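Supplementary Note 3. Input sequence used for the single-chain structure prediction.
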Amino acid sequence: MSSENNDDTKFGGTSEPKDTGTGPRIRTQSECSTTSDDGAQACSGKRQRTTSAQFMLSSGLTSASPPKFVSLEEIMQAANGMRDMALVHQIVVDDDFKLQKVEPEPNTLHQMVNDTMRKAFWDILKNELAQTPPNYTQALVLLEDIKKGLFAVLLPQHTKIKQQISEILDGDLIKQQAENGTLDFEHYAQYVISVMAKLCAPVRDDKIKELTQTTDVVETFKGILETLDLMKLDMANFTLQMARPDIIACSVELERKKFADFLAVQNDGLEHTKKWLLKHVDTSEPPPANSTSSESFIRSVVKKASWEAFIDLLDWEEDEPYPETFMIDEARLRDLQAKTNRLTAIGTVLLVTLSSAGPDLQSIAQFKASLKDHISILLQTVKNDKELHEALSNVAEQVINDVKEAQRKYQLNEMNEVGEAILRQQIVQISEPDHKIRGLVRQRIKEFFMDIIESSTAAPQKVPTGLTSLQRELAAIAGQFLRIVSHNNTVFCIYYYDIVSAALPKPA
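The predicted structure, written as discrete structure tokens, is reproduced below.
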């Protein structure tokens, strides 16, 4: 199986930064920090000897149990640590993570104030430049801001460019020119644009070209500031992209440390994790008496229980608290669960439709692709069975229309009214909780995800029977899910080992 983003492969290692055209033109190698093998070794036989209590002790904490009295300062520090952990975690599990420009919500007081202040600034500049002689008070402030903006997008090796900018955009010199009436404001605009053209990412070339063709000086400087803001964002994302392998390498220990700090101020910080994991552990069978065999036995139990528990996350009840080890992934898991449910419904509609449409249409790939796209559009906002039930009537009408059009197009026997009624009823019934075909499709999808989690290699996995038309969508969900659970297992396997070990009977 293949995917455009290679989402069906294992995500144990670091990925190379991708060239998206948003980085600066002159690039430097990121300063490599010392990488740690702890993440890769965490679940090996040697690392399994490290218990969470020992880890807490090595982190400077006396125990995983909370202190008798917890100060507000300690709680706030733990909360801040979790925010840091959440940011690092998002960078690790989201391959497309990027910083975005923050804009006020539309139709809010914040937006109104923001728009009013910007308009006032540019109106003042326009009025001052229109005076005789021109008043350059606002222009001087603007040029100083632009100089700072140019400095912000320079790389450390751009020393000559920085010196040149400092000399040409010298504040004292520009002020003297303004006082003497010799300031050529448009000349400085063209110089700034020329510097930006050298520094900007290729994705901003069209914007730079547009600025060179703008004749109104105020609009030119407005465009310069807007483009500089985008260039700063490009630089930040480029820096993040280059540092991502180092962040991934350090993320395991950082997340463990922050989570240990969190546990230190909780009464039972693993309550829901224990309940979630131990549902998949047979606590009646004790491990062997031999220490080596016992450890190997526990590791195998932990591995099996973890895999099954991970799949459970795709069938999570809405009001059920998530395991604490997944609390910063809750939104991502909810989203993946909704996508999996939609894909299950789409696959079920396809199977029901194709079995009714006959073998002739089943063999036409173009028809199946078109049918899938139409069903996907109608179900794209569905989040639960109630919404699915409400949407299936429209789906049924669209499906029947698509089938009849295809039959006419390919000169096949057209479906009669009785066939339409039967197919319509079959599609509407898909929302029923105990629908057999939908249950079968869901089980095949879960088994497919389990095969990927269990696989020790990045070898392609066989797409479930009857769902080959959903290969791309399955690969995308599987890739996201695998990235989350693989990283989670690397970070928290020491806790999972301790939970299972404590629940098993003592060797005879």
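Confidence is low (pLDDT under 50) at residues 1-19, 25-72. Residues 217-263 form the longest helix (47 residues).
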